[in-house]
Amino acid sequence: QVQLVESGGGLVQAGGSLRLSCAASGSIFSIVAMGWYRQAPGKQRELVARISSAGSTLYADSVKGRIIISRDNAKNNVYLQMNSLKPEDTAVYYCECIGYWGQGTQVTVSS
Asked: What phi, psi does 30 have (nearest 5°)?
């Protein structure tokens, strides 16, 4: 079983930055892909970014150039560095690993 705990969310003004962290339990972390998703009120959950075990990355078009996903296999952590934040980035952000989900962390961007 995998447990995921997100942190780092908060309130930030448009143009600001936040760094989200996801701490994962379990011995399989280094060999599986990890993902960050988000869900805004009244909308479906959507992919933000994914990173493979080898470090290959995939981003949603809406965040390319502003958000960077990274991982530290030694610490079982995956990160989401978010820059140039926009009000439309406001959502609950979730970490995902082989179908397991964290509890989410709220990101609110004020205009």
From this structure: -70, -10
Q: Give the integer Cα–Cα distance in Å for 33 and 14.
A: 30
CB 9 within 8 A of CB 95: no
pLDDT digits (tens, 9 = 90+) for 84-102: 999 999 999 999 999 999 9
Share of the chain above pLDDT 90, in %: 89
Q: How confident is the model over 22-49, as pLDDT tens digits?
A: 999 977 777 889 999 999 999 999 999 9
H helix or E strand, kind and range, residue 109: strand 105-110
Inter-residue contact 109 to 13 (CB < 8 Å): yes
Radius of gyration of the chain (CA): 13
Residue 13 phi/psi, 5-degree rounding, is -80, 155
b/e string for 86-108 if b means 16 or more Cβ within 10 A? eeebbbbbbbbbeeeebebbebe
